Amino acid sequence: MNTERFEVGGAYEGERLDKYLGLLFEQSGSGLSRSFFQKLIKENHVAVNDVPQKANYRLRADDIITVEIPDAVETPILPEDIPLDILYEDDDVLIVNKPKGMVVHPSAGHASGTLVNAVMYHCHDSLSGINGEIRPGIVHRIDMDTTGSLIVCKNDESHVQIAAQIKEHSVTRRYRGIVCGHVKDDAGVIDAPIGRHPVDRKKMAINEKNGKRAVTHYKVLERFSRYTYMEFELETGRTHQIRVHMASIGHPLLGDTLYSNGKSPYRLQGQTLHAMTIGFIHPSTGKYFEVSAPLPEYFEKILKDLRSMR
After folding, report:
1. How far apart are CA 253 and CA 269, in angstroms?
2. Is 143 an active-site residue?
3. Which among 9, 164, 283, 291 is least surrounded, fewest beta carbons within 10 Å?
């Protein structure tokens, strides 16, 4: 058990306890979320002036907050001998090329067969424990039907450093995708906040009131009669960001059944989106490091077909 104590500054007068802790640890690059602290508060691991408080407690200047952070527990998730397409590996990080249809970490309806199950088998005891028992080593994620580069952290120090880079938007994340329609501009930027859809809780949406800032840079690589092959670079990393942004300007990803009608002349499993390149400052060397994942076979076949018809 690790115990931390903080004195609340005047700038945070009136702030909710859970939000304050989320902001504080987010700024430190620890990877600990507001929901993580809400759980600690419910379990009486957080006290204000030595008295346990609820998550909605409003702070006062000079309050002393004590937080007990439990040691990482051994995960009950079972390692599974699932083949991994490894792009790079050293003592700090493992970068894999995630296949289509694989969920990153266990969740409702996906208790096994996830990337976490696979990396636990591959790495044995060498995974960061910051995200707890469900997501060991996971510092970011991509959607189930999106393929491509994903970083797994093999120790807590690398997790903290890379989480901090993701937080400050300094990690390079370039994607390739095929969208429906003829995109007019050769390049552009979509700067529109993304939040939970007000009606359909499975979806995200442009949400001016409750969304978080989301910025996607795009450029056209090739145009076809009904589709456009594009590159996207993320400045932020919101859930479904590229999918929501492109659908919002009338060009949903080919095969995306959540943000379009999903109709396609090709037999597809979800959106045609690939996380091609990831780059970051390596936690040990301090030098910029970049890895790219080749386009998956199905993606190459679609491009070949589209080029043959042009």
Report:
1. 12
2. yes
3. 9
Name the DSSP class of 59.
Answer: P
List the domain boundaries for the chain.
Answer: 2-69, 86-156, 172-275+297-309
> Which residues are CB-neighbours of 18 under 8 A, at least 6 positions away?
34, 37, 38, 41, 55, 56
Q: DSSP assignment, residue 42?
A: H
- Residue 46 CA: distances (Å) to CA of 18, 37, 113, 136: 10, 8, 35, 23
Whether 113 and 101 have beta carbons less than 8 Å apart is answered as no
The Cα–Cα gap between 189 and 241 comes to: 13
From the candidates 18, 63, 92, 143, which is the catalytic residue? 143
Per-residue confidence at 307, pLDDT binned at 50, 70, 90?
very high
Q: Does the structure show a pLDDT above 90 at 102?
A: yes
**196 band by pLDDT with thresholds 50, 70 and 90:** confident
Superfamily grouping for domain 2-69: RNA-binding S4 domain (3.10.290.10)
